[in-house]
Predict the structure.
Amino acid sequence: MTDALELDALWEDFHRVVNMTSQELADWLRVRDAGETTEPLPEEAGTPTGQHVLSVLQKRRTDLTDDDLRVMRKVVDTVTARADLENEPVPESGDAEETRRRHRLMTLGHDPLKAAR
């Protein structure tokens, strides 16, 4: 397990990079996985990591497991590597690569457009 100072820092980092609420993330995961004729059950929508992020968002710090901490570190590292959190660029309309990048980050709970506001 992580000591209290490391846990505090990880908790803050995670909630800094995950800027979507649990409801926004749950909605996004359902929309992302919905097809023309089918839609997954709400608790089965999204990637395993996206589902785990959603689970962590719904927990108190004292209820975190070692697996939660592992996913939190992974999300912090991934979002930090793929996004400029201080100067989040506003994607230009119609830029397909930026749209794909945004959607990948949203699956982890980070919406670049929300950060740019």
Summary: The mean pLDDT is 82. Residues 51 and 70 are 14 Å apart (CA to CA). Residues 66-82 form the longest helix (17 residues). The two ends are 36 Å apart (CA to CA).
